[in-house]
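Data availability excerpt. The first of two example chains:
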Amino acid sequence: NLNALYTALMALTPTNTTHSGAFGAETLGPGVYTVTAAASITGTLTLDAGGNPNALFVFRFGAAFTTAAASQIALINSASSANVFIVSEGAASTGASTVFRGTIFANQAAASTGAGTILEGSILARVGAVSIASSTLTLPVGTSVMTLGRIAGFSMFTGEGNVANAGASNIAGDIGTNLGTVSGFEGAVVSGTIYTPNMVNADS
């Protein structure tokens, strides 16, 4: 499911290839935004669905992605976090106290949140660790137009890497890794299931 989601997101036809790697302090409509280099969000990035609850916002970056401290993604006019995806070919991370709505997907590197991040969505990696620090994670709101399969229930997942937490995080959703370890969740509140490589998924 993870690989299929990545393939589907990368197969979408780009609608904007001219935006710089610096996002924030602006309002954008639905589309597939493609930047060949690294990218970041500073301040508030507002996504306007124009009244369409199925409006899709995809941001594809050719290198690393990060947010500045206290940045946020705001959703207006029926935009939903279930239809917001940021895909980075490099590491993906949020700065401290970021409010992020959507799915963060690192393809070939680690994905992480800074302390105090509020994530309404998922944090995923294909090849790399996934880690959070004193963060609050809830699953995306709304119904995604993308096919997610079992990934839809995961707040944190990596195909090849470790999954870790530091601090008093609160996670509503499943946690898992296909090839790695899970650690640091003793001090966290987790309302979902923690899946390790040795577990057999009853849905498979």
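And the second chain:
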Amino acid sequence: SIANFTWVNQSRESSLPYDFQILQNDGLKIFTDVKTTAFDFNQKIILSNNEFNFINQNPNNYHIYRVFNLNNNQPSLKICRNINQIGEHIVTHFNQLSTDIAPYLTSIQSLKFAVQPNNHILKFDDTIKL
């Protein structure tokens, strides 16, 4: 169901909060961020506050493609289509923290979050062997 796609980081880091922009046959645009680890699926996924801000602006069309097991000759993929379920809470708390520290002439320039992929909120599709 893919009509077209753009690999935004193919030749260099784009600084965009996703790796692929996918246009489906139905006209829906999906933003896909590929998070890779040589280890097992349960390795934490690192996301920035900028990624979470973008996720919240595109809650129904942002997917995480988790590629894992690259070091044991069984590379696999699982897709998460509901990362926004965590994103909305993180952005709310991040914004509150930013507001709370502003009177001290302090701001947050960048923040990274380590998300456990096997938590009860995230739903990943079945494993695809690559």
